[in-house]
Design brief:
single chain, alpha+beta
Length: 108
């Protein structure tokens, strides 16, 4: 696939409660806003690429306990929702415009 999957990723993210998927980073974000960022690709055969994505999900900009609670209640749902279109390989912390994020590293 490739960049044409962005609308599918955004729509899939929006199926998770409290999450709003975007194809591109939103101009201003709130907790639960999520968007894909291209993370390169790997040539798996001549002319065939496996595209990588990082999904950023904005977290509460509060204390660590609030972020942990949000992650605990949403992480499994996010991975499960993405499963039909992306393979989630890793999860971890990140930031976007100084807002804490949950980052899901995925491949098509």
């Amino acid at each position: 696939m490739g960049f044409e999957i962005r609308p599918d990723i955004a729509a899939t993210l929006s199926t998770v409660p409290d999450v709003t998927g975007f194809e591109q980073p939103p101009a201003t974000g709130k907790t639960g806003d999520a968007f894909p960022q291209w993370n390169g690709g790997e040539v798996v055969a001549p002319g065939l690429f496996e595209t990588g994505w990082v999904i950023h999900v904005l977290l509460p900009n509060m204390d660590v306990k609030a972020r942990d609670a949000w992650i605990n209640s949403h992480l499994g749902l996010l991975v499960q929702a993405l499963q039909p279109i992306l393979w989630t390989m890793a999860v971890g912390p990140g930031t976007w415009q100084e807002t804490p994020t949950l980052m899901l590293t995925c491949k098509e």
